[in-house]
Amino acid sequence: MENASKSIVEIRQLTKSYRRGGQVVPVLTNISFDIMPGDFIALMGPSGSGKSTLLNLIAGIDKPDSGSLKVNGIDIALLSEAELADWRAANVGFIFQFYNLMPVLTAFENVELPLLLTTLSRNQRQERVELALSMVGLTDRMAHYPSELSGGQQQRVAIARAFITDPLILVADEPTGDLDRVSADDILAMLARLNSEMGKTIIMVTHDPHAAKSAHSIRHLEKGKLDVTPQQ
Amino acid sequence: MHFLKLISRNTLRHKLRTGLTVLGLVVAILAFGLLRTVVDAWYAGAENASSTRLVTRSSISLVFQLPINYQERIRKIPGVSAISHANWFGGVYITEKNFFPQFAVNEKTYFDLYPEYLIPPAEMKAFRADRKGCVIGRKLADTYGFKVGDTIPLRGTIYPGAWSFTVRAIYDGAEAGTDTSQLFFHWDYLNETLKKTITRRSNHVGVYIIQISDADRAAEISTEIDALFKNSLAETLTETEKAFQLGFVAMTEAIVVAIRIVSFVVIFIILAVMANTMAMTARERIGEYATLKALGFGPRFLTGLIYGESLAIALAGAVIGILLTFPVAHAFSKQVGTLFPVFGVSLETVFMQIAAAIAVGFIAAVMPALRASRVSIVEGLRHIG
After folding, report:
1. Which of B55, B58, B75 lies closest to B204, judged by CA?
2. How far apart are CA B330 and CA B218, in angstroms?
3. Which of B187, B196, B53 is nearest to B127 (CA)?
4. Residues 136..195 of A with a Cβ closer than 8 Å to B: which?
5. CB within 8 A of A13, min separation 6: which ones?
């Protein structure tokens, strides 16, 4: 067990099961581990091992059956739906496999979206969005709609949207799963830079061992149980 | 800002689907407005009736007439300030299709009771001077192209024979709701003809029109008039002009009720279409709603998007539908000629059209909005990819 006092994510005896067709299917059983600030960890495991479920729980979009899940000292398992929504807006940046951009909004507007939940003025938002899009190399694509961008470009917009609010943690669910190798490497390099240069804590679910190599450590989930493989 | 942007862009996302839904709404709102206008036209006579005019008729039926000598007895009742009379003529102009009301009236007194019929004094003088002359309304003149000096031939049905009247005056309505589709001619001319042909029907009138000085005494004076002729050979029934007109509407109540029901059925059908459109829309966007929720947007934002889109579509249909109602109602009015003397889209109808559209937009969004607000993020995200 790592030093819990310094951890940004502290998971203790976390259990989660789903009900399917009247049957209770356990997904995570007594999971306990910590994530340190500035960590970049990859969660790996076969399909159905519970890695995405674990990611969803850490991101506050799902609730555990039992156990505690503290992020920056707050037990998010105890928050109400409305409190969780506010908490997510302030603390979590999401990167999805299929980018999940709003197709009717431009790249600029998509990145600006999470900022609408803040008190920033229009000018402040504009400055931040322009900076974020320049950081992901899409300054010249601000006015483009997602359908006018390649998969890699869409994922870069999604990354900009994820870190625009300067969240505590970034959660990425198969961020390279829908991309070719070149685009995938580009995205992984971007995540590595966010981690090393901006100190962002990143938790990434992936099937791809090549992608997992970008992380500092790899956690394997097998039938709802964890083991740890530190990176060389 | 993004909220409105999302609504407007989502609305135009599936142009064909939105276009067809708006088209359906346009047709429904237009049909609703038109049917309501038909119902209004049915009640137009009653709506425009004066509260200080009473109508006395036979208590048995309008078919039965009243002796002319009742006039002086009614005039003596306190509160009666003027009296005149009229007979429904029921003539046919060329064919039965060309329906318009014709009345034989007392040319000296009748128009004093109807100040809403605006007749130039010179034309009125010419009418009074010509026993075979007639006064026609502007709508009737416009419909058939009648001008002062023209002869209007009528084939009598209630009063058999070939009749012809020379147009001596054309009246306009003082208000938009004034019926200007009628023809009035001299009762004396009718009566003299009847004396020669069907003597027993002469010296009778269809109805008495009574002007009272105090509208609040209408019921009291009506009772007094009817009491005066109680147990006579021709008992009377006196009522306000409005009640008299509503009596005609009551004869065709079933049709009015049917039209009303159809007008609401039309709205119900478009509600089903709209609800289906919004359900499809929301189902397709479950993943997007889940993403917005994950980003921290609450259920209110999502329901606002759905309600906003639904209302935007409904109001687009309403605006076009309402704008089309006016020319279509005008064309309809021309088509039916003088069947509906007063046929115009009222402000109340426009408000009802707007209210119907808002109701459709709101109700259609209820279930999709509920579903979107309740969708679990994890479940919703599974719809992507």
Report:
1. B58
2. 37
3. B187
4. 161, 178
5. A30, A31, A32, A66, A67, A68
Domain extent, residue A44, equals 36-52+81-230
> What's the one-letter identity of residue B329?
A
Within 10 A of A147 (CB to CB), how many other CB atoms are there? 9
B6: chain A residues, CB-CB within 8 Å = 102, 104-105
DSSP line for A56-113: HHHHTSS--SEEEEEETTEEGGGS-HHHHHHHHHHHEEEE-TT----TTS-HHHHHHG
Angle among Cα A7, A9, A14 to the nearest 5 degrees reads 125
Spatial CB neighbours of A97, under 8 Å, sequence gap ≥ 6: A173, A174, A175, A177, A178, B385
**Could you tell me if residue A48 is inside a domain?**
yes
Nearest to B203 by CA among B358, B32, B112, B72: B72
Residue A42 included in any domain: yes
CA dihedral A205, A207, A211, A217 (to 10 degrees): 60
pTM for the predicted model, two decimal places = 0.77
In angstroms, the CA B146 to CA B167 distance is 8
DSSP letter assigned to residue A208: -
pLDDT tens across the length of chain B (385 residues): 678 889 999 999 999 999 999 999 999 999 999 999 998 888 877 777 788 999 999 999 888 999 999 999 999 999 999 999 999 999 999 998 888 999 999 999 999 999 999 999 999 999 999 999 999 999 999 989 999 999 999 999 999 999 999 999 999 999 887 889 999 999 999 999 999 988 888 999 999 999 998 989 999 999 999 999 999 989 999 999 988 888 877 878 888 899 999 999 999 999 999 999 999 999 999 999 999 999 999 999 999 999 999 999 999 999 999 999 999 999 988 887 667 777 889 999 999 999 999 999 999 999 999 999 988 999 899 877 6
- Are B75 and B251 in contact, with CB atoms under 8 Å apart? no
Between CA B37 and CA B250 the distance in angstroms is: 18
CB B352 within 8 A of CB B264: no
In this structure, chain A runs to a length of: 232
State the angle between helix axes of B253-284 and B347-374 in degrees (0 to 180), rounded to the nearest 10.
30
How many structural domains is chain A composed of? Answer: 1
Q: Confirm or reject contact between A33 and chain B (CB < 8 A).
A: no
Tell the burial category of B347 from Cβ atoms under 10 Å away from its Cβ (0-12, 13-18, 19+): exposed
Q: In this complex, which of A61, A86, A116 lies closest to B377 when CB atoms are compared?
A: A61
| Amino acid identity, position A89 | A
Say which residues have a Cβ less than 8 Å from residue A106's Cβ, sequence separation at least 6: A142, A143, A144, A145
**Closest listed residue to residue B354, CA positions, set B308, B306, B305, B321:** B321
Q: Which residues of B touch A56 (CB under 8 A)?
A: 377-378
Helix, strand, coil distribution of chain B in percent, nearest 5: 55, 15, 25
Whether A62 sits inside 8 A of B288 (CB atoms) is no
Evaluate whether residue A203 is within a structural domain.
Answer: yes
A114 contacts chain B (CB < 8 A): yes
CB atoms within 10 A of CB B373: 16
With beta carbons under 8 A apart, name residues in chain B contacting A117.
295-297
> Has residue A161 been placed in a domain?
yes
Using alpha carbons, select from B89, B77, B84 the residue that is nearest to residue B113: B84
